[in-house]
Amino acid sequence: MELLKYEKLNRLFSHYHNLLTDKQKDYFKMYYFNDYSLSEIAEIMNVSRNAVYDQLKRVEAKLLEYEEALKLDEKSNIRRKYYDKYLKTNDLKYLNLLIEMDDEEDE
What is the pLDDT of residues 32-83, one digit of tens each? Predict the structure, then answer.
């Protein structure tokens, strides 16, 4: 699996895991966190390997769908960039941009 895709899915999972079913979370964690193979997950969950594959594809699609609608990861990345720039430059404009982002979300 492509490392960037893996990292992105893990970030999305950290934002949206509460919106997934327990079963979806279990499949995701076994595959992405514990590095189980599809066959190992199938044996544990007592389903076919294809069922595991389908379930993981559905979870990936859900995570991408949630991000498209809510943009939590995108906003988090922007906040991180502003914060890093503020730490490097001590320029208050970056701190003000962070405050503005928070104010917009409160509205």
Answer: 999 999 999 999 999 999 999 999 999 999 999 999 999 999 999 999 999 9
* Residue 45, CA distances (Å) to 19, 40, 63 in order: 21, 9, 22
Residues 87 and 62 placed together within one structural domain of the fold = no
| Domain match, 26 and 58 both | yes
The number of distinct structural domains making up the chain is 2
Q: Is 76 within 8 Å of 15 (Cβ atoms)?
A: yes
Average pLDDT (1-7) is: 83
Question: Are residues 39 and 59 both part of a single domain?
Answer: yes
pTM across the whole model:
0.83
The residue segments making up the domain with residue 49 are 3-70
Torsion angle (degrees, nearest 10) of CA 57, 59, 64, 67: 180
Could you give the CA distance from residue 82 to residue 88 in angstroms, rounded to a whole number?
10
